[in-house]
Amino acid sequence: MDLVLGTVLAVLATPAILVLAAVLGARMRQWPFFRHYRIGHNGSTVMFPKLRTLSKRTAPYALKNGGEVIPVDRFCAFLRRRHLDELPQLWLVPLFKLSLVGPRPKMPDAWEPTHPGYRDARCLVRQGCTGLWQIGHERDHLVHERPAYDFCYLQYGSVRMDLWILWRTLLMMLGGSTIALQSVPRWAVGRGWVSEMHIRVVGAARFLVPRHDIASGGGHR
Known about the structure:
There is one protein chain. A two-stranded antiparallel ribbon has the order 1-2. The chain has a two-stranded parallel sheet with strand order 3-4. It has six helices and four strands, in the order αββαβαβααα. The chain has one domain (4-213). It is an alpha+beta fold. Helix content is 32%, strand content 9%.
């Protein structure tokens, strides 16, 4: 799915990326792309491209909860709100650097320190352009502050869930609402991509999500 659908989406998105880049370059009078590095599959380093929506004076690894992540203008704020600034990441999917769906690529520990078990468990699969956290109610928090989204995907993910997440991502980019974990439909819940035993082995047992906390009336934080 990543190779075929990822290639199609990357090709389709390229004209929109170039148009947005031209608009941003004219408005901001600077190179419209920037890159930094994230932790990828098995702890590998992934160069992460984005459209520039923040001032060049903003630290490359500024955290959104630190008050430094302020879009340059309303147009940039719109791009960030709809995640259109992240479209260049689709170019990494056919190269198998990212997956279409997966955990959100985390910044290096020097800038975004997290529990080692959380960091290592989520790297057992390829990181994604989108995922449960990106379409979730709590995406304004840092990803490690709401680990249930990542671990729900690791434990109960499926191709059906991937397709549902892609659909919800499209709706959100068009102005649709975010979701709670309890909104994941039962038909999308699968056997998962990583076994519970493997998650325990890497020291992430504390983050396991009980099955009854998703696709039901229960909550998990």
